[in-house]
Amino acid sequence: TPADCDECTPTDGITTCNVELDTSDVKTFECYSWAMTDSVWTQSEAATTCYRKDKPLVCNAPDYNIATDDDYTSMLGGCGPCMSFQKNAGHCKECTSTLCNANSSSAVLTASLILAVLSALVFLM
């Protein structure tokens, strides 16, 4: 079916039908996608826009301390839950807020940089 149509069953069993997809309650959120580059997990620079309807907000990421390229497959740009066998093996982690699957060391580095800039500004005043 086209992306903007719901599946439906013809009433006479022969005629095709299309039912317009109700997008009025579709919510968006963002997650990061991940890729293995030179044996290191790398977070995408840009976030992926994710869509959900009647489902919880979930992002996924590799457990970048232990997962190998064969252990984790980034699906849907980091949007949605882990594949069960990857989660059960401890190779994939899930979180439940927008952009929650960011590399925590990147967040610490960013916070440190901001604090350094603020300290320099205070010192100059």
Verbal overview:
This protein is α+β, with helices and mostly antiparallel strands and 125 residues long. It is built from two helices and eight strands. It has helices at residues 84-88, 104-124, and strands at 5-6, 19-20, 27-31, 34-37, 40-43, 48-52, 59-62, 92-95. The strands form four sheets. Strands 1-2 form a two-stranded antiparallel sheet. The chain has a two-stranded antiparallel ribbon with strand order 3-6. It has a two-stranded antiparallel ribbon with strand order 4-5. A hairpin with a 2-residue loop joins strand 4 (34-37) and strand 5 (40-43). It is extended. The protein starts with a strand and ends with a helix. The relative contact order is 0.15.
Structure characteristics:
8 strands, alpha+beta, 125 residues, extended, two-stranded antiparallel ribbon
Q: What structural class should be given to the helix and strand makeup?
A: alpha+beta
How many helical elements?
2
Poorly predicted runs of 5 or more residues: 106-113
Share in helix: 10-25%
- How much of the sequence is in beta strands? 15-25%
Within the largest sheet, what's the order of strands?
1-2
Give the overall shape, derived from the CA principal axes.
extended
